[in-house]
Amino acid sequence: MAKDKATEATSDFKKQIWDAACVLRGNLDAADYKNVVLGLIFLKYLSDRFEQRYQQLVEEGDGFEEDRDFYEEERVFYVPAEARWDAIAKDAHTPEIGIVIDKAMRAIERENDSLKDVLPKNFARPELDKRRLGDVVDLFTNVKLADGEDNVDVLGETYMYCLGKFAEQEGKLAGEFYTPSCVVRTLVEVLQPFHGRVYDPCCGAGGMFVQSAEFVKEHGGSVRDDITVFGQESNPSTWKLATMNLAIRGIEADLGNYADTFFDDQHKREKFDFILANPPFNLKDWGGDKLEEDVRWQYGIPPVGNANFAWLQHMIWHLNSKGHMAMVLANGSLSSQTGTEGDIRKAIVDADLVDGIVALPGKLFLTTQIPVSLWFIDKNKKQPGKTLFIDARELGTMVSRKLCELKPDTDIKKIADAFNAFHEGTLEDEKGFCAVASIADIAKQDYILTPGRYVGIADVEDDGEPFEEKMARLTGEIAKCFDESNRLQEQIRKNLEAIGYGL
Hints:
This protein is an alpha/beta fold. It folds into 3 domains: 170 residues, Ferritin (Up-down Bundle); 279 residues, Vaccinia Virus protein VP39 (Rossmann fold), CATH 3.40.50.150; 38 residues. It is 46% helix and 12% strand. The chain has a 9-stranded mixed β-sheet. Helix 11 links the parallel strand 2 and strand 3. The longest helix is centred in the last third of the chain and has 32 residues. The chain is globular, with a radius of gyration of 27 Å.
């Protein structure tokens, strides 16, 4: 009961914040007001986390509550007095509230090198309604949570919730920062990054890392002790979102500087245990003509007009000798023969790196209707010489007219369970859903990796109607439909002739 109450309180707060964000928007561009709302959430998080530690130090009674070292040792950002939430709240309904928040952001950046040039500092702009801004500050100030619920945890969930809502609003533009949580969770549940170095070369807002951290915590591990996070993002605004998102979750990460992964690899000499990524689909202008001699192209030079196999090989290059990786790619990568793509795919299969391929249902992404698949690559396969193919296109539930979602306890579990059984050597092929194929089997299919080629079509349950009777019935029904179609066509012709537009 207490858990349900806490969940309800969290859900209510997230909705309140989102509703307030919509009111606050006014005439701001979507990207601008996204930064305003997420920036406020982050500021409240920093202040609350600081206040928790501050009260601990006061209770200890040693007079260290303003000593920065005692915050850093607990990985808590130091918040100077003028940036603490109580100082901001008292000016919530003054014309200067925007200036107060901007000053608070600058003060926090001065005190914390890792946040330098990360926080938004444009709350004082004239187009941002200060009355509404004050109302949002009040909402944060007066938040009421269920007993035992931690403000910090709620704020982390709220940040991710708002990221998703902004993605819904921004449509295609959101692709650079947001991957649907059900897709990320599927990657994580299969890959199981319990312990080691985790990398995402196109990390967006950091969703892969958040889900990896959640997975570790759900299985009794410690994010601080069990995983180390590395990432890269080329878009400066998105890089800032990621930095804040990870900080609010207590995830210490090395994101380097925002830069193009192909031309300025921020982790050039690093190797990783786990790699998870959702790179831009079918990226055309990626500069491949300037990288033809790159050491990363172990399996062939990627085509200049499509970066799919450049991303794939970049990540394989960064795997250590026992590394595992999971990535999202457009379905075309499974069968394309454009340029060198077919040869590269063949070389990767022949190197026995492909652990599994999953074809996903459509409409999972807010940002694109391109059908996609999951690639699982393994440098230390538990089933050498074999690959698991899963056709998950019939899974998922439509949660709106345009959006499908994989449910954790059914759809995602079914996919993850299949991989677990495959790795244990106990999986039985399920027609229409999963099948295990050898490299020789794949070679017979011309190295095309489309799961449907391997899993076949599920058997249709016999309804007991004899075949001859069924065909007679169906052909009779079709004949009636043809007759009705002809009747309607004739009626339309007559109506058009009556108004002088005969056919």
